[in-house]
Amino acid sequence: MSENRIKIVEKILNANERLAEQNLERFDNTNTYAINLMASPGAGKTSFILATIHALLEDQVRIGVVEGDTAPVTIDSDKIMAAGMPAVQINTGGECHLDALMVEGALAQLPLDALDLVLVENVGNLICPAAFDLGTHSKIVIASIPEGDDKPYKYPNIYRGLDVLIINKIDLLPYLDFNMDYFRQGLEMLNPGLETFALSCKTGEGLQDWLFWLKNKLPRK
Amino acid sequence: MSENRIKIVEKILNANERLAEQNLERFDNTNTYAINLMASPGAGKTSFILATIHALLEDQVRIGVVEGDTAPVTIDSDKIMAAGMPAVQINTGGECHLDALMVEGALAQLPLDALDLVLVENVGNLICPAAFDLGTHSKIVIASIPEGDDKPYKYPNIYRGLDVLIINKIDLLPYLDFNMDYFRQGLEMLNPGLETFALSCKTGEGLQDWLFWLKNKLPRK
Questions:
Q1: Across the interface, do B125 and A123 touch by the CB < 8 Å criterion?
Q2: Which residue in A129, A215, A169, A163 sits closest to A48, CA to CA?
Q3: What is the pLDDT along chain B (221 residues), one digit of tens a residue?
Q4: pTM over the 0.80 mark
Q5: Per-residue DSSP letters for A46-88?
Q6: ipTM of the complex
Q7: What is the C-alpha to C-alpha distance for residues A95 and A138, in angstroms, rounded to an integer?
Q8: What fold is seen in the domain B14-214?
Q9: A148 touches chain B (CB under 8 A)
Q10: Residue B123 near chain A (CB below 8 Å)
Q11: For chain B, percent helix, then strand, then coil, each to nearest 5?
């Protein structure tokens, strides 16, 4: 990598930090809690968002969603809107992660004053999203049982910077060789004491503990 | 993105093309067939390589493996060497894909003259690896049933440039809502007539068709 390129990459990251701070300020000024949701493709980010929306309907929690995709598809944002919540779709144009500027653009299209929570669904990728702060209050990764128990060892960066880890698709545990102890040892090495919730968005098992954690974070409007 | 950055990215891609051509020449001169294997994290790349190695043992096919990881872990290369085949591990140092230069370095450590096949296991990622040719004869993506049936729609670039698609973990079909027709429609739109093999590395179901395809590609040494 040339020295020029390194300088340019540094400039991009610094600009991102600045914009991330502005996004955070925006969330705080409108009293909205924000989460950056990261995961592999197919770990269940959208199912997790939908399960959270449905579970919080009776508490009248208003949730806005920012959907990051590498292509101009509205599959996920259509599902969110069908669940009655506002969603903005970001097409990264092939880029492998969201950045703070993209999120800033999306926030301009969400009624933040009327929302309690913003869930930002990052591009499905365990590598690039780890390097770009979006200005959210917390970063959550969704791991899933079929991905295997060695992922913390192989993708350490994304597990290091996390606030919460969701372990999704536990309904598939009987059909797979997933060693939960080995998985948790890897986690503990990278991010000691990390809050984790093992659950199934399909059956609803384990969802209550996650919802309890989340409700405690939501501001009173 | 600044004009400077675009120029630099173009230079990097052009340099990669040149090195990829040299890698291809290297494979051809040593009469070795080479495959670039791409997939999401946890789709089963290493299991697929191991299943292929074991199935071809009796035919005395010699397989070398290049293992790409974003961290200095030897979990996968250890498994390959335990199966009796030479493996070289590349640590990309956080980079989200392999490139032709990294592969060139790895090839210097493999006994190409004594090999029939080189399998390059790319970093687990459905986005970045699509942009970097490694100089292999074919590009294969491994999709897996638990990732869901919408992946071709969401990650079109990687499905467009493919020669073969493996659909792994079909043993999990009874436990998941995976619409194979919807998945195949997406594929057909992006890559008409693409060769696909649906199989399970765990049960061995469907592996024969893949092996038949592969054996036809292998040179006679």
A1: no
A2: A169
A3: 456 666 766 777 789 999 999 999 999 999 999 999 999 999 999 999 999 999 999 999 999 999 999 988 889 999 999 999 999 999 998 899 999 999 999 999 999 999 999 999 999 999 999 999 999 999 999 999 999 999 999 999 999 989 999 999 999 999 999 999 999 999 999 999 999 999 999 999 999 999 999 999 998 76
A4: yes
A5: HHHHHHHHHHTTTTT--EEEEEEESSS--HHHHHHHHTT--EE
A6: 0.89
A7: 22
A8: Rossmann fold (3.40.50)
A9: yes
A10: yes
A11: 45, 20, 35
Place of tokens 């919730």: A197
- For residue A175, the chain B residues in CB contact (below 8 A) are 171-172, 175
Nearby residues of B39 by Cβ (< 8 Å), 6 or more positions away: B45, B122, B124, B126, B141, B142, B143, B144
- Out of A73, A171, A175, name the one closest to residue B154 (CB): A73
> A181: exposed, middle or buried (C-beta count within 10 Å: 0-12, 13-18, 19+)?
exposed
- A220 close contact with B: CB closer than 8 A: no
* DSSP summary character for residue A43: S
Assess A122–B contact: CB distance below 8 Å, yes or no: no
CA distance A85 to A123: 20
Domain ranges of chain B: 14-214
